[in-house]
Each structure stands twice: as C-alpha cells, then as structure tokens.
C-alpha cells in the first residue's frame, strides 16, 4: 500500500475501537430490539468504518460495510425484524471486518469477504416491506451529491452548502463538525475550503443529506456490490448519544439465551472527550518512558544508599535528597497511571463468547459484570485476554448445567456467570464465578491417575485443594470426548502460566453442587515492584512485598510434622506450610535454635530465612539463564548496586499444602 503509515495506523486503531463498540451494540440490540438509539449507534459505526476505508481505497472493506449498512437500514425502518438470526449475521460480518483490519494493519489491501455470508447479508438487506413506503418529503430532499448546487449557487439555494477541495492525490476533502446548541438538534455542518482559497461556505444540513454526502464520497460501488437502497432515511436519533448495553430496557419478548448485566450502566457521551483532551500514543513509547523511569528509580535507590553515611552531616544535601525522592515517586506514579486501563477493556469481548458458546451448548446464562471501571496495567489486560476467554468457556462447558438438569436440581434454569474485578490494596483481583455443579475432587484425582499424571499412592495423599490444583496440569481434562470447547487437556495450564508470568496468583474455590470461583490476583502495575530483601546465610534474595503478610519470630516448639509435611502454627487457629529456604535453595536446612533465623509469613506459608534486611522499590529484569528455573521471577539491582534474584513464592511452595484454618 502507498498510504501514509501513520494515517493507516491511526485508522486501524480507531476502527478496532469502532468494531468493539459495534459488537457491544449488536449484543445490546438482541436484548432490546426496539431501541432506535442502539441501531443509530451501530449504524454510525459502520458508516464511519466505510468512510475511512474509502479514503484508503480499501474497496473490499467499503463493500462489506456497505452491505451491513443496507441490512441495518432495513432494521431501522422496521422492514426487517431484529431476530437472533440477524444478530448472528451482523456478528459474523463484524468478524470479517476484524480480519480485514488485520490485513490493513499488515499493510496489504484486504481480500473480499466470504461469498456465502455476503449473500446472506444481501438477501436480508434486499427484503422489501410492501405495506410501507418511504415518506415523500424525505425522498425529495435526498439527492446525489452531483445534483447538489455548489459554489455561489449553494449559498442561494439554502440546502446543502459544501465546497469540494481537490487535493494533489485527487481525494476530496470534506470537513464536518457538529453545529452549536443553538441550531436544530440533529443538524450537521459540512464545510470545505475552495481550491482558490476563497472563504469557506457552511450551513446546516439534515441527517439525510449528511448520509447522502458520505455515500457519494466513500460508498462508491466496487465490483460485485449490490446497489444501496435509493431512499435511505436516517433517524433523527443518529445524532443521539450512544448508550451502554446495560442501560437498555429489557425486551418484553422471550429472553435470549444470554443476557448481560453490568453494575455501571452508563457511559460518557462520545462527545465528552474533545480532540484537545485526548492524545493517542503508541504503547511502545509508554513502555520506553516507563523503562526510563524504572532506571531513574534504581539510580535514586543507589544515590540514597551511597549517601546514608554522610547525608546526616549536610542539612542541605538531606533536603535535596528528600525532594528528589518525592519527585521521583510522583513521576513514577504519573507514568504508571498512563499505563492503566479499565477492566472493561478486558471484559468487553466476553458477552460475544458467552452468547455463542451457550447457544451451541443449549444452555441459558445470565452474564454479570462487576468492577468494569477498576484499572489495571495494560500489560495485564493484553496478556489476560485469551486466558479469561478460556476460563469463561470452561465454566460454560464443564461447570454450568443444561436448563433441564438445573430444574431437576432445584436451580433456576438460567445460570449465572459473574465476572468481577476489585481493588485489594496494591493488587487487583479478577474472579470468574458460576453457580454450576462445582468441581469433584475425587473425580479429578481419578482422571489424573487414568491419564498417568500421578500414581495411586500420590493420589491417596492429596488433599482436596491439591487435587483441584491438578486441573492446571498440562494434558489434564475431565472430558472423555474431545469437543470444540474442551477435552484436549490444554488451556488451564496456560491460564496458570500466564498468571505466574504476570506475577499473579491463582486460586480455586469450589463447592460441589453449588458452583466454582476461579480468582486471579495481580499487582496494580508491573513496571515497578516493591520487594523485601532477605539474607539466606551469605546470599541476598528478594521477594515481592505484596505477598508478605507479616514478620514473626520462629519458635521451634510450633513446628510439626504431619504425614511427612512440615507445618507451623502461626497463630491460635492458623496452621501454615513451613518453607525452609535453606533446604530448597542450598540443599541444607536451616538449624532452628542454632542458626540466626527470621520468619516471613506469606500468603503461601512461613518462609524461614537467616535475616530480613529491608524493603525497596525495584525494577524486575528478566535473565535468560533463569528461564529454566521456576523458583525465580527475575532479578533486580539493589541500592548497593548488587544483582539480587527475586524469588517466586508460589513455585517455591508448590509441593506444600495450602494454608489451612484450624489446628489438625
């Protein structure tokens, strides 16, 4: 393509956002088929996509969006009813647009869409209503742009005033803006400068005329395109503000297979963000800035460490050091906020997944969202997309029963699938919960033995929690038959690996017969990691401070051996695994009562070390030779300039039992 790469990149980026909104609108339309506002929002998305595609000469995309636009025109005029079939066609049409945008993103013109789906769209778009005809007043006002007066004639006619300016590349430049509040609602102002540099002429036009302008400019017919409807009348609500699916009234018709509910049901108007308040920046540039801030944090740490011996003797130097510390902290916090994105960006793909899968499985599901405005690091949003989809599909396939089975069990035939996000201090917890049949630990152990993942003796020793953890083993599946959604033994292990790679933790809470919750916890940001330094004999290590509950003195009298496992009584009613880092990392256990010891109570158990040194903000650096070891998250540079390995608590303890309540 000869198109400017910056223009192409901007279009593809904005088009993807339009596509996401169009998918949300399509799903909302299924729940509220009589909503003109949703139809208008969906129509605008296709119209904008078509306009940009025409500017890029992406004829296949222009053709495809034009067909979908014709279909929506039938829905808006109520010639064609909104049914699950029409929604299916629209969603599949959006999938084709996604593929076309992927091709544009690679710098190539997209190929035409699949002919069979195109024929279905055209067939629906060609339906005519013999009982109604377009209003004469509307049809009289809609004329091709070639018939519209131009130049001085347009000023005299009082209809459409628009001058066209030919650019060197032959493109037509048209400048469009919404008129002020004092003019008619729904009006649009179209203006352009003349080639000779005369004053621009402008006036208001109706929505019908505005649509005709865009059709004439960008909706040119490509080979194989079905001619657009001759009379297309745009609702006055096209100029209205888009609304979230959750804000729509529920349809009075029979409930669809899947419904979507959200705690927050309103979103700001699309006009709330002006060009002056929003700036698009490549994520790579933000990553570069964050890396530089990380290096600044390390330099700050080294400076403060080096000045500790002399800073008390110089008051001015001490004040400068404090001010520098505050400034670096503020800069770090500001840059980290730039990387934060609402969880809504992560959740927005799930309604489509739930709708498609539940329909194919014959299940009825009410999808609920909580905490869509909770913000999390962009890296987590990007990395967690596929794992979250797998968790949802797994819940639909394995956890939730069919309507008939649910009725037999005394449950509501419509299952509830809840996706939530909540702040927990410096972490974010994301949960996928269902009210299905839960996980049978005994069945899990039996399947693991059958597949050769564990032996009979090991299975007998496993606690219920350990048995449930087997679902994250590669190759494990409780399904005997391979289906489109499960049975291959892949997916859950990827969920666990992804969670760990993001410095997160994964927990499963299940009750047989009542449901399952799979929870993932992640740090708010992955750019800077607060760590606690510790010494193990002569070596220094670090652990994420977010995993530390408290520091305690280790009492040898509270150490017990239960079925070959070391447990420690951390409190009156708290028994936790006893993790001896000396035994794990040095193959030489720490001698309690003989060697100096400190205890670090973590979410995974009690770590026994030689000494706790202190805490510090750090920047995690990946090290190649550590990739084969599951004990380390990476390395960092301490304030003294030393390379320190960061331990992965979950993997250090993976052979230990989960913390238990109550003394056994």
TrEMBL record:
Positions of the Histidine kinase domain: 267-526
Domain HPt: 1-104
Enzyme class of the recorded protein, top EC level: transferase
GO cellular component: cytoplasm
InterPro entries registered for this protein in UniProt: Bact_Chemotaxis_CheA, CheA-like_dim, CheA-like_homodim_sf, CheW-like_dom_sf, CheW-lke_dom, HATPase_C_sf, HATPase_dom, His_kinase_dom
Residue numbers of Phosphohistidine PTMs: 47
Coiled coil: none
EC numbers for this chain: 2.7.13.3
Function in brief: Involved in the transmission of sensory signals from the chemoreceptors to the flagellar motors. CheA is autophosphorylated; it can transfer its phosphate group to either CheB or CheY.
UniProt-recorded name of the protein: Chemotaxis protein CheA
């Amino acid at each position: 393509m000869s198109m400017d790469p910056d223009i192409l990149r901007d279009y593809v980026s904005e088009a993807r956002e339009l596509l996401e909104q169009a998918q949300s609108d399509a799903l909302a339309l299924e729940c509220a088929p009589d909503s003109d506002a949703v139809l208008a929002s969906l129509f605008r998305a296709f119209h904008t996509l078509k306009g940009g595609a025409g500017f890029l000469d992406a004829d296949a995309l222009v053709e495809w969006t034009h067909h979908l636009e014709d279909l929506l025109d039938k829905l808006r005029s109520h010639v064609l009813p909104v049914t699950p079939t029409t929604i299916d066609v629209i969603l599949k049409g959006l999938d084709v647009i996604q593929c076309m945008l992927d091709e544009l993103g690679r710098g190539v013109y997209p190929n035409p869409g699949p002919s069979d789906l195109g024929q279905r769209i055209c067939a629906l778009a060609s339906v005519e209503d013999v009982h109604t005809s377009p209003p004469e007043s509307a049809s009289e006002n809609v004329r091709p742009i070639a018939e519209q007066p131009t130049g001085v004639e347009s000023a005299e006619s009082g209809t459409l005033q628009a001058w066209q300016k030919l650019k060197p590349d032959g493109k037509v430049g048209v400048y469009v803006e919404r008129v002020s509040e004092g003019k008619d609602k729904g009006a649009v102002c179209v203006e352009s400068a003349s080639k000779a540099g005369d004053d621009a002429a402008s006036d208001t036009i109706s929505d019908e005329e505005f649509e005709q302008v865009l059709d004439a400019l960008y909706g040119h017919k490509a080979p194989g395109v079905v001619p657009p409807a001759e009379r297309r009348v745009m609702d006055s609500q096209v100029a209205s503000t888009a609304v979230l699916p959750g804000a729509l009234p529920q349809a009075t018709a029979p409930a669809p297979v899947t419904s979507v509910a959200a705690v927050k049901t309103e979103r700001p108007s699309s006009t709330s963000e002006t060009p002056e308040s929003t700036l698009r920046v490549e994520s790579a540039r933000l990553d570069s800035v964050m890396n530089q801030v990380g290096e600044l944090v390390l330099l700050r740490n080294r400076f403060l460490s080096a000045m500790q011996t002399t800073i008390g003797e110089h008051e001015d130097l001490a004040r400068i050091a404090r001010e520098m510390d505050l400034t670096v902290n503020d800069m770090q916090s500001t840059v980290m906020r730039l990387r934060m994105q609402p969880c809504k960006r992560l959740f927005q793909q799930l309604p489509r997944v739930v709708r498609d899968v539940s329909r194919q499985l014959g299940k009825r599901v009410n999808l609920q969202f909580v905490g869509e405005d909770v913000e999390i690091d962009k890296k987590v949003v990007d990395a967690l997309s596929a794992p979250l989809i797998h968790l949802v599909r797994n819940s639909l396939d394995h956890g939730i029963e069919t309507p008939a089975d649910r009725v037999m069990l005394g449950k509501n035939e419509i299952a509830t699938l809840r996706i939530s996000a909540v702040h927990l201090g410096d972490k974010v917890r994301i949960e996928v919960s269902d009210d299905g049949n839960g996980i049978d630990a005994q069945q899990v152990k039996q399947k693991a033995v059958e597949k050769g993942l564990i032996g009979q003796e090991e299975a007998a020793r496993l606690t219920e929690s350990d048995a449930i953890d087997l679902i994250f083993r590669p190759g494990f599946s409780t399904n005997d038959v391979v289906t489109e959604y499960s049975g291959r033994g892949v997916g859950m292990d990827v969920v666990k690996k992804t969670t760990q790679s993001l410095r997160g933790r994964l927990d499963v809470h299940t009750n047989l017969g009542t449901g399952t919750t799979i929870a993932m916890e992640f740090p708010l940001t992955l750019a800077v990691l607060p760590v606690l330094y510790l010494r193990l004999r002569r070596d220094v290590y670090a652990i994420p401070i977010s995993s530390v509950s408290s520091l305690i003195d280790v009492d040898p009298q509270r150490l017990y051996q239960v079925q070959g496992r070391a447990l420690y009584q951390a409190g009156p009613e708290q028994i936790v695994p006893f993790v001896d880092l000396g035994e794990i990392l040095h193959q030489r256990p720490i001698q309690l009562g003989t060697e100096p010891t400190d205890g670090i109570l973590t979410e995974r158990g009690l770590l026994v070390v030689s000494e706790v040194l202190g805490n510090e903000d750090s920047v995690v650096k990946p090290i190649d030779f550590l990739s084969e070891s599951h004990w380390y998250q990476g390395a960092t540079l301490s304030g003294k300039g030393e390379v320190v390995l960061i331990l992965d608590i979950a993997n250090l303890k993976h052979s230990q039992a989960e913390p238990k309540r109550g003394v056994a």
